[in-house]
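Check out one such.
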Amino acid sequence: MDVIASANHLLNFVAPALFLSVGLWLCARIFYGKSSEMLSWWVQIAINLIVGGAVLAAGLWWFGRDGKMATYTALVLVMALCQWVLCRGWR
């Protein structure tokens, strides 16, 4: 596999985490507003993308293949919890 194909596979692997992290940031702006306690938009997206990529990699390792619904369910739950922590939702 050449470099272009490898990059394409990697980008397609983390695409759900990328789109979910942008969606979570937009929803946080709607529900929490622009609070002074919140981190900047790119930091929130980057942290959620890293956490989401780790969840997807763990699902790939655990199940032995990509695309299991249990992995995507864990992705949504873990990333939502991460965004809640980033927005300091307990306050």
About this structure: The CA atoms of residues 57 and 65 lie 10 Å apart. The chain has one domain: 3-86. Residues 3-32 form the longest helix (30 residues).
